[in-house]
Structure formats: C-alpha cells, structure tokens
Design goal:
Blueprint: H1 6-30, E1 38-39, H2 41-48, H3 52-64, E2 68-71, E3 75-78, H4 83-107, H5 110-114, H6 117-128, H7 132-148, H8 153-165, H9 171-176, H10 179-195, H11 199-225
Antiparallel strand pairs: 1-3, 2-3
Helix pairs in contact: 1-3, 2-3, 4-8, 4-11, 6-7, 6-10, 7-8, 10-11
Length: about 230
C-alpha cells in the first residue's frame, strides 16, 4: 500500500480544482465562455489538459456563485443576466453599501482608511496593466475591507455574495475602450472623501460609483451578447 496520506491527496485535488475555477472565471471575464452557451466538463477538461473531475467540481463551485447553471446530461450553461437583474443587484448594493460607507466615514480612523490605499492603488494599476482578474480581485477586496470597518461581518458576507453574482460581462471590451481606469480611480477619490469624515459626501461618492458600475455592466452586457 502507498504511504501517501489521504489528506495530502485531497489537498492536491483541491488545489487543482481551485486552479481550474480560477481559469474558468478568467474565461468568463474575457468572454471566451459566453452567456447562454452550454459547455461540457470533458470538453473543457481537454482544453485545460486535466481530467473532467476537477472541471466538474470547479463548475459546481461557480454554480453556487450563480455564474453557471447545471444542464442535465449536457454540462453547464453560463448564466445570463437581464437588465432587470443588473438593476436589482445595483439597488440592493446601494441600499447596503451607501449608508454603510456613510457610517464608516464617522467611525473609521485615518490609519484604518490609509491602510486601504494600497488596495485602491492596486485597482488602478491592474486596470492600467489590463490585468482583468487582478482588477476584479483588488476591487472586491477593497470594497469588502472598507465595509468591514463598519463592524458587521454578515453585511460583508452578503455584499461579497452579491458581487459574485453580478460580475462584469465583456470586461475585456471595456478595458479595450479605456473605461476601466477612470472607474478604478474612483476608489482613490472615495478614500480621500472618507478621510474628511464627511458622511454625506462619502455616501454621494459611493452612489456615483455604483451608478458608474451599473453603466459598465450594461455596456459589457451589450457588447458580449449583442443585445
């Protein structure tokens, strides 16, 4: 019998699953995997040069995030978001994030806010380097860490889930048009406003930012599915 411990094998399998999930997210963002299209695990596995098992497991992870949906005996369909979906996600985020940012303006210290500046700068840097995965990851981390300063863990978890479900379609097209850089720079603007302690101004800044994000979603949606 082998001396390998089961937990080591599981660890390797989990890492492969995570790597495949990361690659699939990148394909979703770039538009290689298109909304409404059904993809089989064996076909994707052949593209990645791995077995079908980690691909199926990674797809199940993406299904739990609302990015794909299982199609019986066929594979997985990339989830399509309607204009109504985008509006509803934006409304929910605004209801949660705008007043929370206002609260953060009143309770966060300058040191806590400045600690977020490297993340905000990373968003801008990723946009300028056309690093789409890096852009989304830095953007997600900045927003969740900022909201965490309000002290409500469940709120942060809820927003994190919303962000997963409302990812950007056709992000590569937005990048090519140079629209990501200006959106990225809004995070630095928000930080500067928060440092003044003006809750109302911070809420207004966050409202503008979410409005711009909604516009980007719409542009990406139109560009990727031809609506």
């Amino acid at each position: 019998m082998s001396d390998l411990k089961p937990r080591n094998l599981i660890s390797v399998q989990e890492r492969l699953r995570d790597q495949v999930a990361h690659a699939l997210r990148a394909a979703l963002i770039s538009g290689e995997l298109r909304p409404g299209v059904v993809y089989s695990a064996p076909a994707l596995a052949a593209d990645f040069g791995v077995s079908a098992t980690p691909v199926r497991e990674a797809m199940l992870d993406l299904a739990r995030e609302g990015l794909v949906e299982a199609v019986r005996n066929k594979g997985f369909r990339v989830t399509e978001l309607s204009e109504r979906d985008l509006d509803e996600y934006t409304e929910i985020r605004a209801l949660i994030e705008v007043p929370t940012v206002g609260r953060v303006a009143g309770v966060a210290t300058a040191e806590q806010l400045e600690a977020l500046r490297p993340q905000a700068q990373a968003i801008v840097a990723a946009a300028r380097k056309h690093d789409l995965i890096g852009y989304l990851e830095a953007d997600r981390q900045f927003h969740l860490d900022l909201l965490a300063l309000a002290g409500n863990t469940r709120l942060v978890e809820t927003v994190g889930d919303l962000r997963k479900r409302s990812r950007l379609y056709g992000l590569n097209r937005l990048d090519q048009r140079g629209e990501l850089v200006s959106s990225a720079e809004e995070h630095l603007e928000l930080l500067d406003v928060l440092l003044t302690g003006d809750a109302k101004a911070a809420e207004e800044c966050m409202t503008r930012h979410l409005g711009h994000v909604r516009h980007l979603w719409a542009q990406g949606e139109q560009g990727s599915v031809g609506r």
